[in-house]
Amino acid sequence: PDVIIEAQFDDNDAEHGQDHLQDMLTDDIKKLSLDTGEKGKAAEFSGVQRTKQDDGPKANDPRLLPDEFLQRTAKVVYILEKKHSRAATGFIKLLADRNSELFKRCAMFSPVDHRVPRVYVPLADCPADFVSKPEAYSQMLFICRIVDWKEDSNFASGQLCKSLGQAGEIEPESEGILTEYGVDFSDFSPEVLECLPQNLPWVISPEELAKRRDLR
């Protein structure tokens, strides 16, 4: 069977010249295509292959391949704007390792949205009786806001903002969704309320109804 060799090319290859890349490909072909019984033919095969490639065009140069055969790669160099609100709805529970030093300081916050990482939250933010009665809060929804996520940690660090109430109820669930998406659901200010008609009950005049499209 044909042997396919994959090679990664970067700026270092350009600095060392094409011969370095050619030597690497030739060595890989020798290792993959020859078994122990054909070692005697290795020098001859390698010499012929090398001579033909040196005399001809550099066919294995990735820079000469058409764009449709290349996989473009990139890396993140800067976070321009944090779009996520860093707030999540979820549940709190004690850490599994009760003998660890972290158990005495933090609890684990598990978001409902699995796209958000689990978060270490200080026990000081939790209810006073959470450590003694964690089962009482197993179905209680909380809002947590992520404040940091270190590169060497599997879990983020955050703070509990508030308790929403029992999971499954409409008001806590709705408040959690609005908070996660950064929607301001606070009461309207007096300035906004003054824009509304003050003479109640207010009705739409027939002239205004004639200019509107009725979607009722």
Brief write-up:
This protein is of the alpha+beta class and 216 residues long.
- Unreliable spans: 39-48
What proportion of the residues is helical, as a percent range?
Answer: 25-40%
Q: What is the succession of H and E elements? A: HHHEEEEEHHH
Mean pLDDT, to the nearest integer, reads 80
Classify the beta-strand content into a percent band: 15-25%
Give the CA-CA distance, first to last residue: 71 Å
Report the CATH topology name of the domain at 87-181: OB fold (Dihydrolipoamide Acetyltransferase, E2P)
For the largest beta-sheet, the strand count, sense and barrel status come to:
5 strands, mixed, barrel
Describe the global form: flat
Radius of gyration: 33 Å
Name of the CATH class of the domain at 87-181:
Mainly Beta
Strand order of the largest sheet: 1-2-3-5-4
CATH architecture of the domain at 87-181: Beta Barrel
Count of strand segments: 5
Quickly give the structural class: alpha+beta
Output the number of helix runs. 6
Organism: Melospiza melodia (Song sparrow)
Biased composition (Basic and acidic residues): 51-63
GO biological process, one term: miRNA catabolic process
Domain CSD2: 107-182
